[in-house]
């Protein structure tokens, strides 16, 4: 059997931690930042854990 290819788009968006958790960037901090409050843009910075319901689907895309 040939090897399965991991989804390259997902691998760029989601990182796997050492303990196996999936981390993602928060949405909404790419453009139109002038009209968004500083409070909002600070809240959108950083990474968060992927929702529990999405983990099996993303692991399949990443080939884990």
Describe this entry's structure for a reader.
With 64 residues, this protein is an alpha+beta fold. The protein has a single domain, classed as Factor Xa Inhibitor (Irregular). The chain contains three helices and three strands; from the N terminus they run αββαβα. The chain has helices spanning 8-13, 38-44, 55-62; strands at 14-16, 22-25, 47-49. It has a three-stranded antiparallel beta sheet. A hairpin with a 5-residue loop joins strand 1 (14-16) and strand 2 (22-25).
How many domains? 1
**C-alpha-based Rg, rounded:** 15 Å
Q: Globular, elongated, flat, extended or rod-shaped: what is the shape?
A: elongated
Q: What low-confidence regions span 5 or more consecutive residues with pLDDT below 50? A: none
Number of strands: 3
* Average pLDDT level: 94
Fraction of residues in β-strands:
15-25%
Short structural summary:
The protein has helices at residues 8-13, 38-44, 55-62; strands at residues 14-16, 22-25, 47-49. With 64 residues, the protein is α+β, with helices and mostly antiparallel strands.
Secondary-structure blueprint:
Elements (H helix, E strand, L loop, with lengths): L7 H6 E3 L5 E4 L12 H7 L2 E3 L5 H8 L2
Antiparallel strand pairs: 1-2, 2-3
Offer a few descriptive terms:
Ribosomal_bL35_sf; elongated; ribosomal protein; Ribosomal_bL35-like; 64 residues; 3-stranded antiparallel sheet; Factor Xa Inhibitor; Ribosomal_bL35
